[in-house]
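Dear H.,

Thanks for agreeing to be a second pair of eyes. The structure we're designing against is below in C-alpha cell form, covering all 67 positions.
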C-alpha cells in the first residue's frame, strides 16, 4: 500500500514544512490544482528539488476547488 499526501489549500512554505515533517511516512506528494494555480508549476519543481527521493504528483485540472 502507498500513502499519498495531498497539498491543496496552503502556501508553499507551509507545504514544504508539512512534507518535511511527513517525509518518512508518505510515498507520494500530490501538488493540487489550487497550489499550482496560485504558485505555478514552480511549486512542483521546488518540491521535487527539495525532496528528490519522493514521488511528486502534479494534480492539475482546468477547474477544481469549488468556486
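And this is the sequence the design step returned. I haven't edited it by hand at all.
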Amino acid at each position: 500500500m502507498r500513502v499519498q499526501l495531498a497539498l491543496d489549500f496552503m502556501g508553499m512554505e507551509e507545504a514544504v514544512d508539512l512534507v518535511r515533517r511527513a517525509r518518512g511516512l508518505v510515498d507520494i506528494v500530490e501538488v493540487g490544482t489550487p497550489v499550482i494555480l496560485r504558485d505555478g508549476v514552480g511549486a512542483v519543481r521546488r518540491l521535487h528539488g527539495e525532496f528528490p527521493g519522493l514521488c511528486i504528483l502534479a494534480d492539475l485540472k482546468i477547474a477544481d476547488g469549488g468556486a
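Two observations from my side: Strands lie at 4-7, 28-31, 55-58. The longest strand covers residues 4-7.

Warmly,
E.
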